[in-house]
Design brief:
heterodimer; A: 289 residues; mainly alpha; B: 316 residues; two-stranded antiparallel sheet
Chain lengths: 289, 316
């Protein structure tokens, strides 16, 4: 296995033998290639002209005469610009409110002592255990009672408070030396000025980790917006894609489905490829979610 | 008169401490006020959408309401027994158990393999990690759209490439015996890269000197895996199992897009059943009873895993 030796050439002998035998490494390479096949097919099928016919649809070798027709069709059939706008509004709206709520609550838990702290802490902890997606039925009736059925605000509201974000910010704020705050207080700064000028700027890595997790999960949310949204022009990307897929499946327009899927996932994939390391470390952090 | 005196005594003696308590409480409240104000925005939303929702599920489960506007009727535990007697629900529970075990074991096993193979960082391993992590990022709906074609009978990707190896071409999503396994394949594909991250993080805690000492003593890779790495990864395993279980109950988007629970309920999962009761049958009572049962099962499981973890930390 010359190739494997070459791939591992930078590793000193001890670590090279450290964990997996070569067989495991070869197997992982093969599986990683298999893992990419759906994406590969999506790219190839998007560019495949309809004239290739249904029998060549599964072919992973790109067509000799690629076309952009599928992208154009998907763009026209599904209202993807509108869906993208809705998803962007939802993700941004949730994130902005979350930034306020988790900063304030995180600061309270990190720096203030108050009566009932442990009890309130457990109340937050409960949100982590009660998976929000399971509470869709009572939350849908609440959203309806609040007059927010079929609104983007209704989609956003259950996520405005985040226990995970609060704990993340609490950890970040606890790591900031109190001397900085004391100095600011002596200079006559108030509580909010301290938060705004000391704690927030020094916790940017935590904010960006939280932003990655929050935007990724709400970008991908399906069941909840499906239940809240009724009007076609308020659909987010996921709901739009599911309707689009159901329509295109009936006409066997697989190239168009591939193009539509590509449009939905392209923004996330591009962002991931640019900020790969940050994404991966944020997701490891999210383990406590 | 003789009665009044002893009655007056306790009042007189208790008034002072009660006042003192009130004073202390109000002083404590005053000192705590800034914290409460900071917590207020979060608490409002948690109260509405978490604790309130929890309470509403409890109440709604006791009432019958079959259309959004129908009058409400108290039925006690009838909804709970109706759900438990509904073969669609028990079927969904069984499916969900099979789905949970059948996705957790392969995806956790694969995740461990990936993490062991890719634990060192260089250009190649980070490219492979990225490839395995990509499915985690995309919406389940998008993954389902791609797999719809992968599973398409005769012309789809699976049949096109490996159909020749099989005795008969399976109807992946149309055959009640196979459809759940097909759905499970998507979940494994989507989650293995996620769990890999936690094993990668866990592997960094394996002490290097112990590994080297074992290597010098002539321990082979499997011995090192068995006696050093796996024991070291125990907390990671426990954690990933909890996440995988939660995922098995909360991920149903692929059921919506691909099978709608069919054919003949073979891919119906608990959350999809809840959705059907609430949105398709407008039976809020039954949907709430099913939600309640699911929440109870999950919370029991979480409590159990926390206790196991606590016991482990307290133990030797």
């Amino acid at each position: 296995m010359k190739v494997i030796d070459w791939l591992l050439r930078d590793a000193p002998l001890a670590t090279r033998r450290e964990i997996t035998p070569k067989l495991g490494f070869v197997l992982t390479i093969l599986l990683a290639l298999i893992w990419l096949i759906p994406f590969l097919w999506m790219g190839v099928a998007t560019l495949r002209p309809a004239s290739d016919g249904i029998n060549l649809m599964a072919e992973l070798m790109p067509s000799v005469k690629p076309t952009l027709d599928n992208i154009r069709d998907a763009w026209e059939i599904g209202d993807f610009p509108r869906y993208t706008l809705n998803t962007t509004i939802i993700c941004t709206g949730i994130l902005l409110v979350q930034f306020v709520t988790i900063t304030l609550a995180g600061f309270a838990f990190a720096r203030l002592s108050f009566a009932g702290k442990t009890l309130i802490f457990y109340l937050f902890l409960m949100q982590l255990m009660l998976v929000p997606v399971l509470l869709i039925v009572p939350n849908l009736s609440l959203v309806a009672q609040l007059g927010l059925y079929d609104t983007l605000t209704g989609v956003m509201m259950p996520f405005f408070a985040s226990a995970f974000g609060t704990f993340l910010m609490r950890q970040a704020f606890e790591a900031i030396p109190t001397e900085l705050e004391d100095a600011a207080l002596i200079d006559g700064a108030g509580l909010f000025q301290c938060i705004r000028h000391i704690y927030v700027p020094l916790s940017m890595p935590s904010f960006s980790a939280f932003a990655i997790i929050s935007v990724t999960s709400h970008w991908n949310d399906f069941l909840w917006p499906l239940m809240v949204i009724n009007s076609p022009d308020k659909r987010p990307l996921t709901v739009g894609l599911s309707v689009f897929t159901a329509t295109a499946e009936g006409t066997q327009a697989w190239g168009t489905i591939a193009a539509g899927t590509l449009m939905v996932i392209a923004p996330l994939l591009v962002t991931f490829l640019i900020f790969q390391k940050r994404f991966i470390s944020s997701f490891v952090t999210s383990g406590i979610k | 008169m003789s009665l009044a005196e002893p009655a007056a005594l306790p009042v007189a003696t208790s008034a002072a401490p009660r006042l003192h308590f009130l004073k202390r409480f109000s002083a404590g409240f005053k000192a705590s006020l800034p914290a409460y104000l900071l917590l207020l925005p979060s608490l409002v939303f948690l109260a509405l959408f978490t604790y309130g929702a929890m309470g509403r599920v409890l109440v709604d489960a006791l009432y019958q309401r079959t259309t959004p506007k129908a009058p409400v009727r108290f039925v006690g535990l009838d909804n709970v027994s109706a759900v438990l007697a509904d073969p669609a629900f028990t079927g969904a529970v069984v499916n969900n158990l099979i789905y949970a075990v059948g996705t957790a074991i392969p995806s956790i096993g694969l995740a461990l393999l990936f993490a062991l193979a890719l634990s060192r960082t260089n250009a190649v391993t980070s490219a492979l990690r990225a490839a395995l992590f990509l499915p985690v990022l995309i919406p389940m709906v998008a993954a389902s759209a791609l797999f719809l074609f992968i599973f398409l009978p005769n012309v789809g990707l699976l049949d096109y490439y490996i159909g020749g190896l099989l005795p008969v071409l399976p109807n992946w999503l149309g055959d009640p015996d196979i459809a759940l396994s097909a759905i499970m394949m998507i979940t494994i594909w989507k989650n293995a890269g996620y769990y890999m991250l936690f094993f990668l993080a866990g592997l960094q805690a394996v002490p290097k000197d112990v590994m080297e000492a074992a290597h010098l003593d002539g321990a082979g890779p499997f011995q090192r895996l068995r006696y050093i790495i796996l024991p070291e990864l125990k907390p990671t395993f426990l954690f990933v199992i909890v996440i995988a279980t939660l995922n098995a109950v909360t991920q149903v988007d692929h059921v919506f897009v691909m099978t709608k629970g069919g054919p003949s309920n073979s891919t119906n999962l608990v959350l999809f059943y809840i959705y059907q009761q609430a949105v398709e049958h407008y039976d809020i009572g039954k949907a709430s009873a099913a939600t309640l049962l699911t929440l109870a099962a999950l919370m029991g499981l979480t409590a159990l895993s926390f206790r196991t973890m606590a016991n482990r930390e307290g133990g030797p």
